[in-house]
Amino acid sequence: MTERRTIRTDYLARVEGEGSLTVHIDGDRVEHAELRIFEPPRFFEALLQGRSFAEAPDITARICGICPVAYQTSSMNAMEDLAGVEVSEPIRVLRRMLYCGEWIESHALHIYMLHAPDFLGYAGAVELARDAPLTVERGLQIKKTGNEVMRLIGGREVHPINVRVGGFYRTPSKRELTTLIEPLQRAREAAIETVRWTAGFDFPEREVECELVALWHPEGYAIERGRIRSDRGLDIDASEYPDHFVEEHVERSTALHSRLRDRGTYLCGPLARYSLNQAQLSSRASSRARLGSVRPAVTRSAASSCAALSLSTPATKLCG
């Protein structure tokens, strides 16, 4: 007779927000896992009602202190699309740079402070720093560089205030932008070393049945704009999202659960984006991905209803 047991973690320490996890196990098989997000809802949809369109980007940036640019950019894209505004190429490039600055600081935080201690058997980053101070210092320097990019372009490191519908309140001068060259060059070398480091982590083999969904754009690796695509043929404009995706509440969580209409579970995020857009990476980024043994998710067969997603890939957070 197999042993049945339940593992319950009432508070997850290294996540952005508040959550708990319950896992039901029968022998060596996980029967059911339940992630509960109990951070109170903040009703940003209601906060925006009756406000000026110009306020929307600054209000939505407050959804998260770690990744405010993601919400700010989505809001900006929506407002400009509604108004029929086309921004110039220099403005678009600056916005993408701001978004990349957020990725740099956020990913460094995740890798060094939230993920690495678990992989290496430490209670937290402080304990890791006692044995590997230079390693943790490297992570902090990468994060500092991302913060510098956000401060220069966005006006400050947390909840940037410099972006407005149609452009920026103030664009940095060429002289100001050149101050980022040396820090970014150092951060690039530190990121390459991070890939080597994380490639040595022990990643358990795991396959999950799901459809991969990410942005795609013909002009480059999609981050802040593009069409919504999947590995099963989905190819839609962002305005068509409500026609293909269903968002619903579940009793255990304040976070909305999303699924593809009539198709079920899907995965977005770094691994999905990399799997669908790897051909558009620069040669430098592609070679670094190979260095870290980062590989795309693989579809089991052409007739398969969804992809067999390998979760044993190291350093996927680095890929965006």
Structure, explained:
The protein has 3 domains: 34 residues, no CATH class; 156 residues, Cytochrome-c3 Hydrogenase, chain B, CATH 1.10.645.10; 113 residues, no CATH class. The C terminus is likely disordered. It is of the alpha+beta class and 320 residues long. Helix 5 crosses helix 6. It is globular, with a radius of gyration of 21 Å. Strands 6, 7, 8, 11 and 12 form a 5-stranded mixed sheet that branches.
CATH superfamily of the largest domain: Cytochrome-c3 Hydrogenase, chain B
- Low-confidence parts lasting 5 or more residues at pLDDT below 50? 299-320
Range of strand content: 15-25%
**Count of all domains:** 3
Number of DSSP-assigned strands:
12
Instruction: Look at the structure and give the mean pLDDT.
Output: 87
Number of helices: 11
Question: Approximately how much helix is present in the residues?
Answer: 40-55%
Q: What is the CATH class designation of the largest domain?
A: Mainly Alpha
Main pleated sheet: 5 strands, mixed
State the end-to-end distance.
45 Å
The CATH architecture of the largest domain can be given as Orthogonal Bundle
- Quickly give the structural class: alpha+beta
What topology does this entry show?
Layout: E1 4-9, E2 19-26, E3 29-37, H1 44-48, H2 56-60, H3 68-83, H4 89-120, H5 125-131, H6 133-154, E4 163-164, E5 167-168, H7 174-178, H8 181-199, E6 207-216, E7 227-230, E8 235-236, H9 241-244, E9 245-250, E10 253-260, E11 266-267, H10 270-277, H11 283-291, E12 307-310
Helix pairs in contact: 3-4, 4-6, 5-6, 6-8
Would you kindly provide a brief summary of this structure?
This protein has 320 residues and is of the alpha+beta class.
